[in-house]
Records
---
Amino acid sequence: MRIAPSVRSIAIAIACAVAGLGVARAQHQHGHDHSMPASQPVDDRREFVKFPAPLVEHTLANMRDHLLALQEIQDHLGQGHFDVAARIAEARLGMSSLGLHGAHDVAPFMPQGMQDAGTAMHKAASRFAVTATDAGVTNDYKAALAGLAEVTATCVACHAGYKIK
């Protein structure tokens, strides 16, 4: 699917602005010293979770696909394609996606909190899929956007608490 250059430029500008605000908010909330030189390491308090090497790459690839799915969902919501956004959410992020991502292989290496965060994300994505489908009938996009925000909030929470590499 091709997006008009002007729409693409606007979307990129908005994404950069939102990402910049998110980083600024995260730094502010974590009390980082903004006067610290850029070469100094930031105190990373996330819990390190050790996976076997093949599962690290597998999991990182899954997370990149999750990001791609979120981008595709946002694109389709922006075009009013609620049914397509719902199908992507359920197939790639929702409870139906667990087999696709090999969740049963990775879960034994995750601490309970990380497992809970993953389950919360998959459940939120399935709820979003229902809400997005409903929005296709009612044309009420606000509930769909709120549902998508819930999905991304679970991603943010997990990445704020855990690291695998």
Note: The longest helix spans residues 112-138.
---
Amino acid sequence: MRKIRKGDDVVVITGKDKGRRGLVLRMLDDGHLLVEGVNKVKKHMKPNPAKGVAGGIVEKEMPLDISNIALFNPATQKADRVGIKVLEDGRKVRYFKSNGEVLDA
């Protein structure tokens, strides 16, 4: 079970975008993920008439390492660490380490 999943609200804790929030758009298999509106770069695109792609400078999100982000805790309004515990009925759930609140209902 992963501690951070697609659709989670996360906060960047290190790097040039430190403190910015966004939703996880996509998880990549090598420990990286794409966060909406974070780590944007300008990429020079060559035009490709066969695919209908216009050339120019495009702004796009680049992957962040999973160690550089933390889940946003709405109760404390801060970034928080996440743990995994097993409930009495055998289900695994994620919870915030600071207040013990369970994420997955």
Note: The chain is about 0% helix and 45% strand.
---
Amino acid sequence: MAVHPALEAASLTPAVPLSVNERLRLHEMLGRYISGLPTPLTGVRGVPYGPVWPLDTPALAGWRSHLIARLADCQFDYLHAPGPATAADLLAKEAETG
């Protein structure tokens, strides 16, 4: 789910099948999350700073590969919306029709 005021409209986009680029992006995002490093929304304008703990390990990289492989076997969508209310409205509409 991406909620950001720069988005103009809410949308649901099928995520599968996962492309190679999408698998790499998911690895990056999960690796950043595990390490405590935020993923910038609009790009880095200066030098990023803050504590980054070295919590990633080869075992966690293997776990990420396993998780992404499991995600690739499921059907799910990415939700993009300009705000939380818009996101909730889209989910409610989808629940009514789905």
Note: The CA atoms of residues 37 and 49 lie 9 Å apart.
